[in-house]
C-alpha cells in the first residue's frame, strides 16, 4: 500500500497481535499504544483561597440641625416677562377679478322627491302575494291564478293589501272583494284585478280616518 494522501496506512508491526484462526490461518488485530504522559492531583496542587475582607461601612451622614425656617410657594412669585411688540399685520392679498360665470340655487332648483307608492298584494294563506309592484303606475291591471280550498266551494273572499312586508298582517288593508258563483268542480281560475289611483287614495283616506276615530275613542260613523 502506497503512502499517498487519502489512502490508509498500515499500522506498525509492533502494534499488531496475532490470533489463531479456526481454519489454521492467523489474524492480526491492531492495538493502539499510548505514548503520552499523564498528570494527577499531585502534579497540580490546589492553592489556598485568600480570605475575603468585607469593606468598611459607609460613614454616617452629617448632622444638620433644623433652624425652624420654611419656605412656601407664595414666597417665590413669577418673574415679570418683558413686553413684546405685536407683529405687523400680513400684507393684503392681491385682488384678482372674476371673469367667469357662476350658478346658484335659483338656476338649479331642487326637485322634490317623488313619493314612493307601496306594492299592492293579495293575502293568501297569511302571506302577501304581490300582484302590482311599486314601480307599476296606476291605474293597472293584474291577473292571478287562484285555487279553492275545499270541494264544492262557490264563493271566494280576497283581501287587497298595500305594503312590502312578506306577512299579510304587517301590511295595510285596502279593501276586500268577493267572488261568487264559482263553477262547481273547478279547482283553479284566473282572476283579473283592476286598481285605479283614486281608489287606492280613497281607501288610504278612509283608513286614516278610521285610525283617528279609534284613537279619539269616538264610535265609528255609519
Structural write-up:
The protein is mainly beta. The chain is about 10% helix and about 25% strand. A four-stranded antiparallel sheet has the order 4-3-6-7. Strands 1-2 form a two-stranded antiparallel sheet. It starts with 15 loop residues before the first strand and ends in a 6-residue tail after the last helix. Residues about 1-10 have low confidence and may be disordered. This is 2-alkenal reductase. It comes from Micractinium conductrix. InterPro entries: HSP70_peptide-bd_sf (IPR029047).
CATH superfamily of the domain at 120-216: Substrate Binding Domain Of DNAk, Chain A, domain 1
* CATH second-level architecture of the domain at 120-216: Sandwich
Helix content: under 10%
Low-confidence parts, pLDDT < 50 over ≥5 residues? Answer: 1-8
CA-atom Rg in angstroms: 57 Å
Q: How would a textbook summarize the main sheet?
A: 4 strands, antiparallel
**Total DSSP E strands:** 8
Structural class: mainly beta
Q: What is the end-to-end distance?
A: 134 Å
What is the fold named in CATH at topology level of the domain at 120-216? Substrate Binding Domain Of DNAk, Chain A, domain 1
Number of helices: 1
Amino acid at each position: 500500500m502506497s503512502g499517498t494522501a487519502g489512502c490508509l496506512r498500515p499500522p506498525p508491526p509492533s502494534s499488531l497481535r496475532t490470533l489463531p484462526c479456526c481454519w489454521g490461518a492467523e489474524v492480526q488485530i491492531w492495538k493502539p499504544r499510548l505514548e503520552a504522559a499523564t498528570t494527577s492531583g499531585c502534579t497540580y496542587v490546589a492553592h489556598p483561597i485568600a480570605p475575603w475582607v468585607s469593606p468598611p461601612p459607609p460613614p454616617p451622614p452629617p448632622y444638620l440641625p433644623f433652624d425652624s425656617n420654611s419656605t412656601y410657594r407664595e414666597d417665590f412669585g413669577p418673574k415679570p416677562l418683558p413686553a413684546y411688540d405685536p407683529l405687523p399685520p400680513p400684507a393684503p392679498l392681491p385682488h384678482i377679478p372674476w371673469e367667469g360665470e357662476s350658478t346658484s340655487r335659483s338656476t338649479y332648483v331642487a326637485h322634490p322627491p317623488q313619493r314612493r307608492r307601496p306594492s299592492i298584494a293579495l293575502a293568501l294563506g297569511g302571506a302577501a302575494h304581490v300582484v302590482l309592484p311599486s314601480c307599476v303606475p296606476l291605474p293597472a291591471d293584474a291577473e292571478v291564478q287562484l285555487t279553492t280550498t275545499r270541494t264544492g266551494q262557490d264563493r271566494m273572499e280576497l283581501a287587497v293589501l298595500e305594503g312590502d312586508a312578506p306577512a299579510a298582517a304587517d301590511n295595510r288593508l285596502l279593501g276586500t272583494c268577493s267572488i261568487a258563483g264559482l263553477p262547481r268542480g273547478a279547482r283553479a281560475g284566473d282572476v283579473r284585478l283592476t286598481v285605479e289611483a283614486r281608489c287606492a287614495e280613497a281607501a288610504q283616506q278612509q283608513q286614516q280616518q278610521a285610525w283617528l276615530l279609534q284613537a279619539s275613542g269616538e264610535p265609528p260613523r255609519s
